[in-house]
Amino acid sequence: MRILEVIPALNSGGAERFVVDLCNQMAKDGQEVTLLTMKDFSISNFGFYKDELSGDVRLLNMGLGKFGLSTFYKLYKTIRSMKCDVVHFHLTAMYFGFLAVFFDRKKKFIVTSHNQADKERDRAKFRFVVKKICLKLKLLQQVAISHQNAKSIREVFGVEPIRLIYNGRATTNITHQYDDVKNEIEQYKSHPATNVFTIIARCNPQKNIPRLVKCFNKLIEEGADVVLLVIGNGYDSPDILPFIKQANKNIHFLGQRHNVVDYLSCSDFFTLSSDYEGMPITLIEALACGCIPVGTPVSGFNDIIEDGRSGFVAEAINDEAYFRVLKRAINHKKNISTDSLKVMYRDNLSMECCAKKYEELFQSVL
């Protein structure tokens, strides 16, 4: 099959990480894969993951700066010129590519829903309407990434997802930086038994970083021997700086890292304080490393984590519930087998499993 994957950029986010892994695996499986990105790699960190793309995947970058009305036509022309069977959209690429969806009927169009449908509707009304029309007219078909995600698609868009496919993550090994990371983390700990929590997230509202800081501050003030490592970009924005200044000295903001597997492998817990998610790639990475997940009951966490057996899930999405689940995780850490987490990843959430399901889907629509 000739598959065209389309995403706005390759910056350090979960969807971007997923797309690179998916392209690499499908190319390894013998598919003809092209990855089309829209934003200029020289701007910001829009090319963060580009060097992790396999040489077997053809990479095209449109080199765009600020998006405008011309973006719709440029993307239409680019997709129209591509010799491919399936076009697979991610994030806002589908919105900017809707002209191709309407007028290039020689190709099949699929979009993966990386977030809850109600959040799409609430954050960008016009984009939501465009997508809903394409789905209703059956010009476009949507993949759900969790059961909660599928439910939101049915309720908000009024259509059934064509398939439910859990996200996957490529198998990754610790890097040559592992020993340095281990030594770095030891410096943060006050005692060999200090519990290390790690969060991997860009700083944006859905991750609710104020909740994260407030709850860990309270946890430490009450005497818990913990450190929190925050990996991701955007923590220098004016909106979040006041909360960062209030953070306890045991909360460390490390910025972006390519070698997150090293940090997860040296941590006891992976955590998310989010208000909503689709299916967090970072959660899958944590399971692959045997790092115990602790988080709010958002889509993805609820779908694959069984509270008390494969991680710890808060009772509700609020500060009090998140604080309680952090305490419970520390107190019942020994109940979780880290080896079982790795098996859970291998059998259900590897990119080999995920890519095979996408390939079967693409073949079925042709």
Describe what this molecule looks like in 3D.
The protein is an alpha/beta fold. The chain is 42% helix and 17% strand. It has 16 helices and 13 strands. It has helices spanning 14-28, 69-81, 93-96, 98-103, 117-123, 125-136, 147-157, 178-188, 209-221, 241-245, 260-265, 281-288, 301-304, 319-331, 338-348, 351-365, and strands at 2-7, 32-39, 58-64, 86-90, 108-112, 141-144, 163-164, 195-200, 226-231, 251-255, 269-272, 292-295, 312-313. The strands form 2 sheets. The chain has a 7-stranded parallel beta sheet, with helices on both faces. α13 links the parallel β12 (292-295) and β13 (312-313). α1 packs across α16. The radius of gyration is 21 Å and the shape is globular. The protein starts with a strand and ends with a helix. 45% of the residues are buried. The model has no long low-confidence stretch (mean pLDDT 96).
Short description:
The protein has 16 helices and 13 strands. With 366 residues, the chain is of the alpha/beta class. The protein is globular and about 60 Å long.
